[in-house]
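Explain this one:

_____
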Amino acid sequence: MAGPETRDLARAAEAGGADLVEIGFPFSDPLADGPVVRRAAERALAAGMGTRSCLDCLRAVRDAVRVPLVPMTYASLLEAYGWERFAADAREAGAASLIVADIPVDVHPELRRVQLVAPTSTDERIALAAESTDGWLYVVTVAGTTGARSELSPALAPLVRRTRAFTKTPLYAGFGISTPDQAAAAGELADGVVVGSAALVAAEEGAGALERFVAQLRAALA
C-alpha cells in the first residue's frame, strides 16, 4: 500500500526476489479486498494518501528499485482524477502498467492495464481479457475477496486450463495465496503468483520480515 514506508518495503521485496511490486492506491470501498488490505487502505487514507500523494510515492519507489511497479486501485479513483490524466501521470511516475480491480474488460478499452480473469469468467470474457491485457493476466483463484486461505483454491487448475486455450500470455495467480506451499502449488499451474495480504502482514513487522517472507516464496517457486 502506498505510504511513507513503501520505498523501503519495495526495496525489501526486490531484495527477497520479487519480479514485480504491486502498489495499492487506497480507496474507501475496495470491493475486491479482504480485511488485511482494507485495513491497510484505511490507514493510508487516514495518513492523507490521496491520489497525488500516491503518485509521488510511486515516483519515489521507481527511483529506488529496478523491478516493474504496478499500481492497483479502483475505478472511482480514476473517475475522480480523470481516466486519461491518471494513465498519463501514472506512467510518468514510473508505472509499468495498472490493475483496476472493478472495471470489466470491455469498459474503457483504451486504458492499458493488466486484465483479471476469475473462475466465474466465461470463455468469451477470458478470450477478450487475454487479447487486451497488458503484459500478463491476473488469474484470480477464487470467486471472492483477497486474503489468506487455508489451502489453494481447487478452482485454479481448471481456470488455468481454460485460459491457456486462448493465450500464451504469462498467467500470474493471486487471491488466497499466502504460504510458500501454496505458492509452490500455484506455480506448478501458473507462471507466477501474486501475494498481497500475506505480504502486508509480513510488512507490519518491518522491511526485514518482508524480505525474508518474499525470499521464502521465491525459493518455493524455484
